Amino acid sequence: MSPPPLTSFRALSFDCYGTLVDWESGLASDLSPLITALPASHPYRANPLLAVQRFNAHSEHLWAAQPTLAYNANLVQSLRLLATEHGVALDEAHAQAIGDGPGRWPAFGDTVEALRRLGRRYRLVILSNVDEANIARAVAGPLGGAARFDAVYTAEAIGSYKPSLDNFRYLCEGVEREFGVAGDGDGKGGLPLLHVARSLTADHVPAKEVGLRSVWIARGGDRAENYGTGGDYAKLRAEGRLGFEWLFQTVGEFADEVERQFAAEEGEGK
């Protein structure tokens, strides 16, 4: 069956980091003091994304092991684990600074204008693993000037981290309670909420499990060399764990298609 028109949805929920904010580049920059302390022959020196991936593995382990640990503390602890693993003496100021990273890491170049356009058509919601303080700084800073967000749901408020299904149930229940938008968390019917995300493992796999329709903002992640921290696309697809019905490289391209479909529909109504 063909997916429903994008004009049929009333609200969009977004993953923030990796989708709207350039999480991997921001984190790589914050990891640079550790990376440059390694021998010149170390693989991280040639490819900082490897350090980001290893850091993310520590972070994800902490998500599961300490689900109530705020994300800023998760980042600090993950950096300490990475430094210890590689025998690097960690400067405490560096360790603490990484905890504030999500509030200052840059938005992708297409993000702000795309959100402004999408905000004319939909309610906009963030579902993020980041703590309350950092997401507030990001909304006011790197995402400043974008359309308003009608709701922001964080792991800190929910008490667990994506990919926990609890986070997606919280999202679905929240938009229904606050905006009367059916989240379709049980997979039975409603169309109004659409989830928009880059990460396959943190967002698209659990979205399928709760019956939430989704858009993949791939940002190159449909090619093996760019999988990054979003998950192994080929493997997850072969396992049947993905259910997204739209694929765009950027949020800007998604916004273009939304505008095209609304213009076509409005033209037919004249």
TrEMBL record:
Gene source species: Trichocladium antarcticum
The organism's place on the tree of life at top rank: Eukaryota
Identification of the protein by name: HAD-like protein
MF GO annotations: hydrolase activity
Keywords: Hydrolase
Entry-linked InterPro entries: HAD-like_sf, HAD_sf, S-2-haloacid_dehalogenase
